[in-house]
Amino acid sequence: MPRAPFNPRVSIVTGGASGIGRAIAAELVARGSHVVVADLDGDRATRAATELTAAGPGVAEPATVDVSSFEQVRDLVDRTEADRGPVDVMVNNAGIALGGLLEELDERHWDRALAVNLGGVVNGVRAVYPHMSARRGGHILNTASLAGLIPAPAMLPYTTTKHAVVGLSTGLRAEAAALGIGVTVLCPGFVDTPLLDEVYEAPPSIAGGSVRQAVRLMQPKFLSAETVAARAVRGLERNQAVVPVGVLAHLLWRLNRWAPPAARGLCRVQARVHRSRVHA
Ligand SMILES: NC(=O)c1ccc[n+]([C@@H]2O[C@H](COP(=O)([O-])OP(=O)(O)OC[C@H]3O[C@@H](n4cnc5c(N)ncnc54)[C@H](O)[C@@H]3O)[C@@H](O)[C@H]2O)c1
């Protein structure tokens, strides 16, 4: 049976002012959607929305939101439903980078990772779910990471939250199917965005707060945000459960399922390399 064209009327993208979120917003605007570009950085959201609207044929509007606040996310969703109509697609994408060995990290790293990378997704899901379930339709896209599919050392607050986002998404998918709601989780390898250079409260082993050079050892060529967004929206269109993006993500995800000892060995090497930097 031919698939119906995927043209969501109203969408919300958190973390939509930059990187992957901005590129997903651009894909949705290109499909004619009215997209709310929601971000902590309101000025950047306004600039992104203006540029995306100029590209059309859809429209983008900016919104300032801190996804770690349930009240703010609920207000954003309720306002959008009231002003623009049913939210067809909710993209819970906002996130921050964290890195370093466990002994270098303190409660600031854990609290922030849990509040933004996990709490932000939980808040987005909880805010939109009552609307989508009442009308028995809609699609939720959560951005996790390759770090949500494999044991990723030297960034445990990040790895922990991304595994949780995968668990939340795949579990919810099973529950939500009966209500006509699709749930997809996006798991890209390393992507060329500002996030790689903005490690939160970077510890000594993350020189200059950037992981760009270090991760090149694992993935010499970064993915573009546009490639990831195109795969994400195709995943939405096909109602895929998990969307890994990039050769590294596909390889390591498979290795971890088919030969877990090999995957664990590889991660031990990665941890050892990182530790050698601390003591260099
Ligand atoms: N860049 C990568 O290599 C990579 C790989 C896999 C997954 N991801 C994930 O993709 C998502 C987007 O990251 P990106 O690479 O596009 O980064 P980015 O830094 O380009 O964009 C992230 C956006 O999220 C916003 N944001 C941060 N905290 C927020 C908060 N509390 N409330 C609202 N907005 C907030 C930022 O202002 C920014 O605009 C993140 O969840 C990240 O973990 C990134």
From TrEMBL:
Q: InterPro entries recorded for this chain? A: NAD(P)-bd_dom_sf, Sc_DH/Rdtase_CS, SDR_fam
GO terms for MF: oxidoreductase activity
Keyword Oxidoreductase included in the entry's annotation: yes
- CC per GO annotation: membrane
- According to its UniProt record, what is one Pfam family this protein matches? adh_short
Q: Which SUPFAM superfamilies does the record match to this protein?
A: NAD(P)-binding Rossmann-fold domains
Keyword vocabulary terms for this entry: Oxidoreductase
Note the superkingdom of the native organism. Answer: Bacteria
Q: Which family does it belong to?
A: Belongs to the short-chain dehydrogenases/reductases (SDR) family.
Q: What is this protein called?
A: Short-subunit dehydrogenase
Give the originating organism.
Oryzihumus leptocrescens
